[in-house]
């Protein structure tokens, strides 16, 4: 089965809306935002975000409909690719814990093709602590991809009975300092350094091309 690839530009709030493709076909959507956004999870309390700091830095605060902690989107410093599957697709699984495993494996193969070492996929339920409930990239979720413990691919999912939407993001460059500054909780320099060390920055890696070469047909 072929894949449709779409490139969409818009605000982070618009791109997070659950708007399935017009046709029931496997679809990749590559999203780009024109300005910096701090996207918080569906259950995350707004009191965790420093709105005054965000306003001063011209960072928009956006709430997404999927769970997890906050994700920082800085134009040019991330790659955001969503994968849509229609119901009845051979890749579909009703089990939310294993539904993203196939995508994690595909991404792991693509990243291994790029000579990234010791790539692995997190299987099973999410594993979180106090920090990862605030910052998405500090936790481990089903289907997410790691290299020697560093997180490369963040992944979440939303579904209806007609569609699954897998949201994935990798960071070309990640700013733990800006992420910490946008939170209301105090984060010391040691914690910021630890956060930075937990994220794998892919730089100029052509992740879309690598992913497309490994997608199941």
Descriptive report:
This protein has 217 residues and is an alpha+beta fold. 21% of the residues lie in helices and 26% in strands. The protein has 6 helices and 10 strands, in the order βαββαβββαββββααα. The strands form 2 sheets. Strands 1-2-6-10-9-8-7 form a 7-stranded mixed beta sheet. A 3-stranded mixed beta sheet has the order 4-3-5. Strand 1, helix 1 and strand 2 form a beta-alpha-beta unit. Helix 3 packs across helix 6. The chain is globular and about 50 Å long. It starts with a strand and ends with a helix. The mean pLDDT is 95.
| Biggest beta sheet attributes | 7 strands, mixed
Low-confidence stretches: none
- What's the Cα radius of gyration? 16 Å
Quick check: average pLDDT? 95
Number of strands: 10
Global outline: globular
Report the portion of residues in β strands.
25-35%
For the record, give the distance between the C-alpha atoms at the N and C termini, rounded to a whole number. 5 Å
Helix content: 10-25%
| Number of helices, where a helix is a run of at least 4 consecutive DSSP H or I residues | 6
| Helix and strand composition category | alpha+beta
| Biggest sheet strand line-up | 1-2-6-10-9-8-7
**SSE order:** EHEEHEEEHEEEEHHH
Summarize the structure.
This protein is of the alpha+beta class.
Please give the structural blueprint.
Blueprint: E1 4-9, H1 12-15, E2 27-32, E3 37-40, H2 51-56, E4 60-63, E5 71-73, E6 78-86, H3 101-113, E7 119-121, E8 145-147, E9 150-159, E10 163-171, H4 176-181, H5 189-197, H6 207-214
Parallel strand pairs: 1-2, 3-4
Antiparallel strand pairs: 2-6, 3-5, 6-10, 7-8, 8-9, 9-10
């Amino acid at each position: 089965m072929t894949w449709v690839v779409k490139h969409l530009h818009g605000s982070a709030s618009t791109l997070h809306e659950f708007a399935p493709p017009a046709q029931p076909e496997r679809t990749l959507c590559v999203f780009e935002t024109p300005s910096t956004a701090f996207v918080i999870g569906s259950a995350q309390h707004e009191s965790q975000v420093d709105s005054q700091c965000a306003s001063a830095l011209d960072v928009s605060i956006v709430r997404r409909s999927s769970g997890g902690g906050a994700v920082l989107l800085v134009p040019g410093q991330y790659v955001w690719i969503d994968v849509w599957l229609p119901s009845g697709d051979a890749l579909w699984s009703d089990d939310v814990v294993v539904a993203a495993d196939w995508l994690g494996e595909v991404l792991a193969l693509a990243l291994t093709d790029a000579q990234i070492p010791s790539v692995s996929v997190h299987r099973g339920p999410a594993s979180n602590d106090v920090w990862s409930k605030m910052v998405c990239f500090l936790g481990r979720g089903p289907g997410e991809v790691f290299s020697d413990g560093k997180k490369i691919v963040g992944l979440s999912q939303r579904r209806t009975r007609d569609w699954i939407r897998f949201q994935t993001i990798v960071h070309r460059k990640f700013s733990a300092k800006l992420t910490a500054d946008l939170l209301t909780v105090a984060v010391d320099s040691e914690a910021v350094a630890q956060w930075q060390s937990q994220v794998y920055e892919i730089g100029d890696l052509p992740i879309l091309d690598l992913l497309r070469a490994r997608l199941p047909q």
